[in-house]
Amino acid sequence: MQVDDALIDKLSRLAMLDFDGAEREELKADLQKMIGFVDKLKELDTTGIEPLLHITSAVNVLREDEPKNMLTKEEALQNAPLHNGDFFLVPKVIKKDDA
């Protein structure tokens, strides 16, 4: 695949980005290098090799979610600038339109 001005125009239109002359040339060179790398990978013989879905065979290597060192409600609210004893009070951020 050849990277030309038409391809850059199409990609910039799809991404809603504007490029000046120097940026266009740099982008063309970078895209050509990426496509060249993928083309180089196509030369490898992959017959008999299963496609990978994950890099490792490890499944869910995360620890169990166990509650520890929990704050009491009073401890959590003690440094809050505004609270009503049960909840944090914050300024209203959603405004309704009267229309």
TrEMBL record:
The keyword Protein biosynthesis applies. GO terms for molecular function: asparaginyl-tRNA synthase (glutamine-hydrolyzing) activity; ATP binding; glutaminyl-tRNA synthase (glutamine-hydrolyzing) activity; transferase activity. Belongs to the GatC family. InterPro entries: Asp/Glu-ADT_sf_sub_c, GatC. GO terms for biological process: glutaminyl-tRNAGln biosynthesis via transamidation; regulation of translational fidelity; translation. Its EC number is 6.3.5.-. It comes from the Bacteria. Allows the formation of correctly charged Asn-tRNA(Asn) or Gln-tRNA(Gln) through the transamidation of misacylated Asp-tRNA(Asn) or Glu-tRNA(Gln) in organisms which lack either or both of asparaginyl-tRNA or glutaminyl-tRNA synthetases. The reaction takes place in the presence of glutamine and ATP through an activated phospho-Asp-tRNA(Asn) or phospho-Glu-tRNA(Gln). Keywords: ATP-binding, Ligase, Nucleotide-binding, Protein biosynthesis, Transferase. It catalyses: L-glutamyl-tRNA(Gln) + L-glutamine + ATP + H2O = L-glutaminyl-tRNA(Gln) + L-glutamate + ADP + phosphate + H(+); L-aspartyl-tRNA(Asn) + L-glutamine + ATP + H2O = L-asparaginyl-tRNA(Asn) + L-glutamate + ADP + phosphate + 2 H(+). It is an enzyme of class 6 (ligase). This is Aspartyl/glutamyl-tRNA(Asn/Gln) amidotransferase subunit C. The gene is gatC. Heterotrimer of A, B and C subunits.
